[in-house]
Write a sequence for this structure.
């Protein structure tokens, strides 16, 4: 039985899991949807109630009834590498590929419908609250007046993007940023804007959830640092124990969301409380494993090898 | 009028050009010029930042 990994060639984080699967002797096929059609090929038949499907890449062929699990990592847009790419070709290729894979009963990390829902930050915040995490007060609004009132009420607020996706034209980075007290909120009318109460953090926490396992790491924050992804502080990630309350909330979140994998970000305050910031259903883990030596790739490989056990 | 969040944007960093390793379709992972898997060189991976939480930002929003 074969593990199918949907990701691009440049994804060295996937390499970490591929190496673990090799160690375990588990067959795998690494397939980039961007190579379909072309180097990647598929065929699916729906005849007299029967379904048969095949996928091939680089000389390897995998039958749909020979699949063990599917890992969605960093796949390119379907048909992205075609000689004449187009939105139409991407749509056709995506329908054929993901539709065929959905016909199987194998477990996904993560199931596409669960992943799509988990990307919705407003839904994340609600689910996090219901799961038992402390969540900083947040508003998402297109009303400048509401934004102003929120900022007045909480005094120190940050602005962050709702989708997490940076603008591409022109390419920009949008780190989470502290809003100055004299900010003019009239531009809030131009796009839904997410404001959140600023948590004066002592550390960033990254908790990687793989199946039933959790790997938490902590990195000391500089005073006043807002977005831990930007700016090198000289501190490194260190393993940290997961408080019982957080562990229970993670289990609830996992149950309600249907996610097999999730990378949780928290801000730890001076009292040691872990404030939920977000859960990235496809979040990176290589940087944590490199610094902490926590066996996250091995846990992913173990789940893909024996999903659900 | 531009989106409020754009007032706090900064120029995107260019993705590093990575030529220290290349994909090997037989092994199904990236390898160094000497044939070893790229993941064996932890210093290199940390330096090129390909596994970090901002690595996917240009093309993916789940970091």
């Amino acid at each position: 039985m074969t593990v199918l990994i949907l990701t691009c060639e440049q994804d060295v984080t996937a390499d970490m899991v591929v190496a673990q699967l090799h160690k375990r002797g588990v067959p795998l096929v690494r397939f980039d949807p961007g190579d379909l059609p072309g180097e990647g090929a598929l065929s699916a038949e729906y005849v007299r109630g029967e379904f048969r499907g095949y996928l091939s890449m680089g000389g390897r062929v995998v039958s749909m009834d020979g699949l063990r699990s599917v890992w969605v990592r960093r796949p390119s847009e379907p048909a992205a590498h075609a000689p004449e790419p187009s939105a139409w070709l991407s749509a056709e290729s995506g329908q054929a590929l993901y539709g065929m894979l959905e016909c199987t009963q194998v477990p996904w990390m993560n199931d596409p419908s669960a992943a799509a829902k988990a990307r919705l930050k407003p839904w994340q915040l609600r689910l996090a609250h219901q799961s038992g995490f402390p969540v900083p007060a947040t508003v998402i609004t297109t009303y400048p007046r509401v934004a102003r009132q929120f900022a007045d009420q909480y005094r120190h607020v940050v602005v962050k993007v709702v989708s997490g996706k940076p603008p591409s034209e022109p390419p920009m980075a949008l780190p989470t940023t502290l809003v100055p007290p004299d900010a003019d909120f009239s531009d809030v009318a131009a796009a839904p804007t997410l404001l959140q109460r600023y948590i004066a953090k002592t550390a960033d926490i990254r908790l990687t959830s793989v199946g039933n396992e959790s790997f938490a790491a902590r990195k000391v924050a500089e005073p006043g640092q807002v977005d831990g992804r930007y700016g090198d502080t000289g501190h490194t990630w260190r393993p940290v124990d997961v408080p019982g309350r957080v562990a229970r909330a993670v289990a609830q979140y996992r149950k309600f969301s249907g996610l097999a994998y999730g990378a949780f970000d928290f801000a730890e305050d001076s009292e040691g409380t872990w404030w939920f910031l977000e859960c990235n259903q496809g979040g990176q883990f290589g940087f944590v494993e490199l610094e902490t030596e926590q066996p996250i790739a091995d846990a992913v490989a173990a789940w893909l090898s024996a999903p659900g056990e | 009028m531009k989106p409020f969040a754009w007032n706090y944007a900064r120029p995107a960093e260019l993705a590093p050009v990575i030529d220290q390793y290349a994909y090997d379709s037989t092994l199904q992972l990236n390898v160094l010029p000497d044939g070893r898997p790229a993941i064996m060189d932890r210093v290199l991976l940390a330096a090129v930042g390909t596994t970090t939480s901002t690595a996917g930002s240009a093309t993916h929003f789940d970091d």
